[in-house]
Amino acid sequence: GRIWKVSTETAACTATNYEQGQEGFSKFGMGFSVDGPSGSKETLFLSETLGKGLASLDVNSLTVKYIGPPGAPFVGTGAELTGTGDGHLYGFFTTSPAQIAEIDKATGKAQNPVELNNTYVGVAWAFSFYGGDFYVYTAGGGGGLPRAQTGSKITRYRPSDKSVTVLKEGVGFTIVGAGVSTCAPLAGPK
User: Fold this and answer.
1) Inter-residue contact 188 to 133 (CB < 8 Å)
2) pLDDT tens string 65-82
3) Which of 19, 73, 136, 144 is deepest in the core (most CB within 10 A)?
4) Contact residues for 100 (Cβ-Cβ < 8 A; gap 6+)
5) pLDDT tops 60 at residue 167
6) What is the pLDDT of residues 44-57, one digit of tens each?
7) Single pTM value for the model
8) Distance CA 145, CA 150 (A)
9) Burial class (CB in 10 A: 0-12, 13-18, 19+), 129
10) Under a CB-based contact definition with an 8 Å cutoff, are residues 70 and 51 in contact?
11) By C-alpha distance, which of 68, 103, 97 is closest to 83?
12) 27: closest CA among 104, 94, 96?
């Protein structure tokens, strides 16, 4: 429920004056999205962990603005978020099995969900987009420190052929957040 500022040069963390619990958002997934296909302005979106829905966070004032609920079938379900360079926002929803859906940034409603067969969030998860594909990082149960397990499984969802492929069973550590630049390419290398 807290927000810290992290230096990309030194990895030093600095506390912010973010007020916890705004609009009922105590724990949340987050992701940036550009405001349009050729936009240079970015918005940081939040998805409340217990499924309240979507909000935006003004990165200057650290004020949360509620947008709306995700709608069926995601009522009461949290999501991790990722944006694409063409201005779309997607959620990796913690259903069983997990699902990916585009999120309307004006209403918060999830649309066109895709079920990821045999993909379950477990106790830790993250989500990113790169080169036209979505990547989900999931870790099973067991508790303990992140390094106490075999680590996260990496699964790729490729919209172009609707394939779901496990790329790596265990990376040796647990991934609990994955950031991606909103200028990441929309198409993969050829």
Assistant:
1) yes
2) 999 999 999 988 989 999
3) 136
4) 90, 91, 92, 93, 113, 114, 116, 127, 134, 136, 157
5) yes
6) 999 998 889 999 99
7) 0.89
8) 11
9) buried
10) yes
11) 103
12) 94
